Amino acid sequence: MYGYCAKTGMYGCCAKAGTYAIAQRQVCTAVVQRQECIVITQRQECIVITQRLAYMIYLHGNLCRNEDKDMSTKGKILYAEDELGLSMAVSEILKMEGFEVTAVMDGLAADEVLQKEHFDIAILDIMMPGMEGTEVARNMRNREDYTPVLLLTAKAETEDRIEGLNMGADDYLAKPFAMGELVARVKAMVRRNKEYQQTVLNLANVTLDLESNELSAKSGSLILSVKEAKLLALFLEKENVSYSKEEIVKRVFPGEVDTEEIALYIAYINNKLVQIHGNLQLVQEEEIIQLRKTA
Fold this sequence. Notes:
By secondary structure, the chain is an alpha/beta fold. The protein has nine helices and 16 strands. The chain is elongated.
């Protein structure tokens, strides 16, 4: 028997039962073919997913272990899919591949999260309640968010796929899809996006090299910490932008620092800009932070 528990994030297989099945909102002690099987420890409730999806997670998990994959985080993914079972299975497999996954169940939630956090790729089902995936993609491009978008579509017509690409998507994958193909496309899109990202940012007389974290200006250069470089890059990537501390935490440091620490990093950066005679300073007015040119 094979089971997956959304509450604990655990899954397991029982050779004794000899079948693949999912406990249907029962505690994880399940009876299959009159044989008792502990599906998942801690007797947590299971969420229903199909036998095919459960088996897909099981096989992919074994493949990942056999290949001894590097499980360091390869990027952040927003995954919008309104079918619960498919969402759980795909999310689990992408996590096995080393990605950090944020899963939402409708287009409105996807649109909201994308405005608050940075992702390396957005995977959007087209047919979702609230807002279709194509609308989410168009909203992203309208606000100059160029995060790569992969559309998942059950529509077979070429015109529908062309419409999605015209509204801002970078690629599409038809349902039902092979999990290996989805993983391969996600990896390729994330890799291309990182290759095309600008590695040297310039504003006024200040230059930031994102590969070495070297900050340079008129009077020399020095090395920023990783967090300092990430924070300064957020303001150098687009001129005349402003963010609240909460937005900075969500975009740059999710789960790493709190809003109170942002002021400390701003002070560090401003001090280093003064040291190299850079004509920029991070300025906070009330709750809003901006990067401004100085004389």
